[in-house]
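Posting here for the record, re: inosinic acid.
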Amino acid sequence: MKILFATHNNHKVSEIKNMLPEVTIVTLDDVQDEDEIEETGLTFSENAAIKARYYYQKYHLPVIADDSGLVVTALNGEPGVHSARYSPSGSYAANNQLLLEKMANISHREAYFITVICFIDNFGKEHYFTGKITGTITKEEKGTSGFGYDPLFYVPEFRKTFAEMSLAEKNKISHRALALNQFKYYIQNIFQKNR
Ligand code: IMP
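Prediction output follows.
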């Protein structure tokens, strides 16, 4: 089976290739696609679907697209679907600074990371897979690995922020890993049925 993974992010590509060795993954870099798609959805599912539908119509191949972000309860769900461009510059450092400022006088610090994967199969049918991990927002950055909001996202069960974990550790429990695991389970079932 050949699936187009609608991303330019090499980190995501190697993660999925590792998890699904039986599937041939083609990426946007492989097809040299530089199209800019506006993620105008109000939810993570809508944004994942916008990307998946666009590339399915363009390439007529099964497609996976994902959308992720951080949801902070006390901020009514911010940064949410705006996670990548929360601050004006959109840099990781500025996004983190803005989040810390908004949380300065807030004691209820619960948050979760979420990933929604939209998979469009070769019949054009859409399937959704969601992964979530709950934690709290720290009062200052801790740790140096990972990316984005990792230094501010504390996972109580591990007593570490995402940025204090090794990549292998994070990849076992992260929202993306959980969503990918569900997708993997689904795809493997299809393979078994067709055997
Ligand atoms: P994307 O949809 O996977 O590109 O994620 C959108 C934005 O959410 C990223 O630019 C980050 O700001 C944030 N984000 C998503 N996943 C993570 C993560 O695992 N760690 C830290 N930030 C993340």
